[in-house]
Amino acid sequence: MNPISEPPLRVGLVINPEAGLGGRIGLKGSDGAEVKAKAKAAGATGQAQNRVEQALEPLRSLQGHIDWYAAGGQMGEDVLRGLGMMPKVVTTHEDATAASDTKLAVAKLQAQSIDLLVFAGGDGTARDVLDAIAPNQVALGIPCGVKMHSGVFAQHPLATAQIIQDLIAKRLVSGVIGEVRDIDEAAFRDDRVEAKFYGEMLIPDALRYIQATKVGGRESDALVVEEIAAGYIEAMDSEVIYFMGGGRTVGSVMRALGLPNTLLGIDVVRGGELLQSDANEQDLLVWAGQSVCRILVSVIGGQGHIFGRGNQQLSAAVLQAVGTNQVDVVATKSKLASLRNGILIVDTGDAEVDSAMMGLRSVVTGYQDNVLIRVGSV
User: Fold this and answer.
1) Structural domain of residue 333, as residue ranges?
2) Helix (H, G, I), strand (E, B) or coil at 94
3) Please, which residues have CB within 8 angstroms of residue 298's CB and are 6 or more apart in sequence?
């Protein structure tokens, strides 16, 4: 039996070492060179290093399960080395740090194909990360700042370690959208709270069951697949061509669209219309050459395969033509929880394509409900 290849979780770290600088002396924030200079003149120090050490200390025993990547010096490297974790350092900089350093670090960390971006700071740091983060990059903030209005931070530093431990232990973790918000510090100092929405990030969170998915304390698959279908259809782009994989969960999407479904084949859909039934590999390559495409697949129960079992039409060549980042996976939480190896598996026969698919992936598990699960290969 072929072993399952599951590389270490790739985690990137970037710290704003001046986060929280103005909190203890009542400056109500740390944004701006003038405020930072005033805080330092008053003897204030940032809180980030201690908070990050507290957050990551429980992970020291997981050497070999995590590959660490970090911004240089006090922006991440120093804390990890102090904990005995030897990161790959992606940036160097002077002692003073600015928003541009954070943005550069985020870009460099993402170039390493990290699974999870961990950043430490407050709302200002979250805004800097948002400016540089890729749409599908999973991120999580360690709360260290004065202003904490954004919904992208762990509830407590130790919750960061717990989420990473859950990912490594193959426990289900929800993928949720967190808002990045920040307030006007000048207005705040005049006792006016003026918070502004800047954007959203995909963040990991404790597993949650939402909507009408519980019957007697367990998921009702019949209700869940209806919610999966409703949520997925709501998010479909009418200009994109979709390759609809086989299986009953994808079939529920087709039924909700009012279209016939090839249970063990691949159907081609755009704008709510069926373009082709039971397409083969060559058909799919032709469609992929005509327009932007996405692939929707479900999970084989027990085994966990998403490619290479029962859907060989979605070959390595098709995945390369469409793009491995253009793949959506749907499954119920009960199916994911029952996976034999605790991960999803790709087996296209092409090692390069399989490797590109590996890592942390968001799976649609209900209406506006997602779970983060790792992908490995044979």
Assistant:
1) 214-377
2) coil
3) 245, 246, 247, 248, 249, 250, 306, 329, 330, 331
The residue to which tokens 């200009």 are assigned:
239
Residues 49, 43: Cα–Cα separation, whole Å: 16
The two tokens of residue 108 are 């460099």
| 269-278: Cβ within 8 A, 24+ apart | 269/241, 269/242, 269/244, 270/238, 270/239, 270/240, 270/241, 270/242, 271/238, 271/239, 272/238, 275/241
User: What residue type is assigned to position 2 of the chain?
Assistant: N
Q: Parallel, antiparallel, or unpaired: how do β-strands 327-330 and 359-366 relate?
A: parallel
Residues 181 and 273 in one domain: no
Cβ(331)–Cβ(298) below 8 Å: yes
3-state class (DSSP) for residue 360 = strand
- 99, two tokens: 């928003």
Residue 62 has pLDDT above 50, yes or no: yes
**Cβ(295)–Cβ(241) below 8 Å:** no
Could you report the per-residue pLDDT of 283-331, keeping only the tens digit for each? Answer: 999 999 999 999 999 998 778 999 998 899 999 999 999 999 999 999 9
Structure tokens, 5: 């290849």
pLDDT tens-place string over residues 327-368? 999 999 989 988 888 899 999 999 999 999 999 999 999 998
- Residues 275, 133 within the same domain: no
Q: At what angle do helices 48-56 and 157-168 cross, to 10 degrees?
A: 30
Report the predicted TM-score, pTM, of the whole model to 2 decimal places: 0.82
1 occurs within a structural domain: no
Residue with token string 């009418």: 238
- SS3 call for 207: coil
Stated length of the chain: 378
- In a shared domain, residues 239 and 359: yes
The whole-angstrom separation of Cα 225 and Cα 217 is 17
Residue tagged 């974790």 (tokens): 85
